[in-house]
């Protein structure tokens, strides 16, 4: 190998290592307990936004406000205090043994329970509906085997559970679902009439289920002010805008101790966005003015991105292309491009670049889906991709989505592919 080639190879490897080290540090920082799951208990979302603002300042991005932040209001049902479930005197662990539906109100007491299986509900639907109307005990629905049901039967069970949650006239104090499915959590902007608790059946299958003790405290907050974090790097051309986006918020805390780190979802996307910002600030001037936006409140229903679309920094019609990054911490099996089937020219260019540069194993395409922050822009006819990686760990919306097990298998390769794609727009 010639001397120049060897020097370039060493330099290239060093840059890759630095990018990965920085990304790993960002993910570790955003998933630290001090961030409180980047939700709305203990100001986790605000602490995370300030961290990103500091990174924008360090990297040298231009700000459109004093601290890079665009504030917006939202309402969220939170669970900042007591979170206890006991069955047959066994204390269950939040996030591990059980989860509470995010729209649940608080409840406290020892309750008698009535148990019914989903098979019984499906076979004797009208009989059970009539009986449920007269129940004053906690209703335990054994939902094991739900995944094997037909689409129609699943809909019947889900509709019934929704009715139980939001029917004000029922006397049932709470609903418990015994499940063999993975426990995943989310965020709600409303409060139901009674709590719903999902419990892993394997934890309590040998216990007496005729009584249950519940101590759950909720705090419905209508006064939350969250924020997007926005910065820009001037490009060679100012006639158009390229946007690189990623949401930084996650699910926050469930009780005083349990929190959801959100390493892949979406500390990984923020890390990718910041790594790209560093590259364009220090190493290569982008072709177009490039706007970097870390959206808040994505998990609450795309609130931050919807707010931005109503109050954009630049007119939306000036956006040449938007790349939204969410769940990019794996890559063993390549990457998926939402909207790839809509913006065929750009997708084919992405695939061609990936083949030429021999980066990711495969780039897959799907149609439109309103499942991340690209969606409000797509509704306004802004050309956009939502990219997420494939393969690797399956932790998602649970307590196991942690920094320590996030492989970042295709992180450097995806970053290189995005850079090449933006350079060729």
CATH topology of the largest domain: Aminopeptidase
Please provide the count of β strands: 19
CATH architecture of the largest domain: 3-Layer(aba) Sandwich
The share of residues in extended strands comes to 25-35%
The number of distinct structural domains comes to: 2
The CATH class of the largest domain is identified as Alpha Beta
Q: Write the CATH homologous superfamily of the largest domain.
A: Zn peptidases
Using only C-alpha atoms, the radius of gyration works out to: 24 Å
Can you tell me the overall shape? elongated
How large is the count of helical segments?
11
Task: Write the element-wise H/E pattern from the N-terminal end onward.
Answer: HHEEEEEEHHEHEEHEEEEEHEHEEHEHEH
Can you put this structure into words, describing what you see?
By secondary structure, the protein is α/β, with parallel strands linked by helices. It has two domains: 20-78 and 222-423, Aminopeptidase; 83-216, Glucose Oxidase, domain 1, CATH 3.50.30. The chain has helices at residues 3-30, 44-59, 118-123, 125-134, 151-166, 201-204, 263-282, 303-310, 344-357, 375-378, 411-423, and strands spanning 62-63, 69-78, 83-87, 90-91, 98-100, 107-117, 138-142, 175-179, 196-200, 211-216, 219-233, 237-247, 253-254, 258-259, 288-295, 319-325, 335-338, 363-366, 384-389. The strands form three sheets. Strands 1, 2, 11, 12, 15, 16, 17, 18 and 19 form a nine-stranded mixed β-sheet that branches. Strands 4-3-10-6-7-8-9-5 form an eight-stranded mixed β-sheet. The chain has a two-stranded antiparallel sheet with strand order 13-14. The longest helix has 28 residues, at 3-30. The radius of gyration is 24 Å and the shape is elongated. The model has no long low-confidence stretch (mean pLDDT 94).
């Amino acid at each position: 190998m010639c001397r120049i080639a060897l020097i370039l190879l060493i330099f290239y490897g060093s840059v890759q290592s630095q990018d990965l080290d920085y990304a790993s540090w960002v993910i570790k920082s955003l998933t630290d307990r001090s961030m409180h799951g980047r939700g709305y208990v203990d100001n986790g979302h605000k602490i995370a936004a300030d961290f990103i603002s500091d990174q924008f300042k360090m990297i040298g991005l231009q700000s459109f406000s004093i601290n890079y932040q665009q504030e917006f209001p939202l309402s969220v049902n939170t669970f900042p205090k007591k979170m206890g479930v006991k069955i047959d005197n066994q204390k269950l662990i939040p996030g591990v043994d059980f989860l509470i539906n995010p729209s649940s109100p608080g409840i406290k007491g020892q309750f008698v329970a009535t148990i019914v299986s989903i098979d019984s509900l499906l076979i004797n639907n009208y009989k059970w509906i009539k009986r449920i109307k007269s129940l004053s005990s906690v209703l335990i629905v054994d939902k094991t085997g739900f995944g094997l049901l037909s689409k129609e039967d699943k809909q019947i069970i889900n509709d019934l559970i929704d009715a139980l949650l939001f029917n004000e006239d029922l006397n049932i104090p709470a609903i418990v679902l015994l499940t063999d499915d993975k426990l995943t959590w989310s965020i709600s902007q409303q409060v139901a009439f009674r709590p719903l608790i999902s419990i892993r059946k394997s934890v309590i299958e040998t216990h007496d289920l005729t009584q249950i003790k519940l101590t759950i405290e909720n705090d419905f907050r209508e006064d939350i002010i969250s924020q997007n974090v926005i910065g820009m790097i001037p490009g060679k051309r100012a006639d158009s805008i390229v946007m690189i986006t990623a949401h930084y918020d996650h699910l926050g805390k469930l009780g005083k101790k349990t929190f959801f780190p959100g390493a892949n979802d979406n500390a990984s996307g923020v890390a990718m966005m910041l790594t790209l910002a560093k590259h364009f600030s220090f190493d290569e001037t982008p072709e177009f003015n490039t706007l970097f936006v870390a959206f808040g409140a994505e998990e609450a229903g795309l609130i931050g991105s919807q707010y931005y679309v109503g109050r954009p920094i630049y007119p939306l019609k000036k956006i040449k292309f938007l790349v939204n990054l969410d769940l990019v911490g794996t890559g063993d099996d390549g990457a998926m491009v939402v909207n790839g089937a809509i913006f065929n020219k750009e997708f084919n260019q992405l695939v061609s670049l990936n083949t030429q540069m021999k980066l990711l194993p495969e780039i897959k395409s799907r149609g439109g889906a309103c499942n991340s922050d690209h969606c409000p822009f797509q509704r306004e006819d802004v050309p956009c991709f939502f990219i997420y990686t494939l393969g690797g760990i399956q932790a998602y919306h649970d307590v196991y989505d942690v920094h320590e097990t996030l492989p970042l298998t295709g992180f450097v390769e995806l970053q290189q592919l995005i850079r090449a794609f933006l350079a060729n727009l």
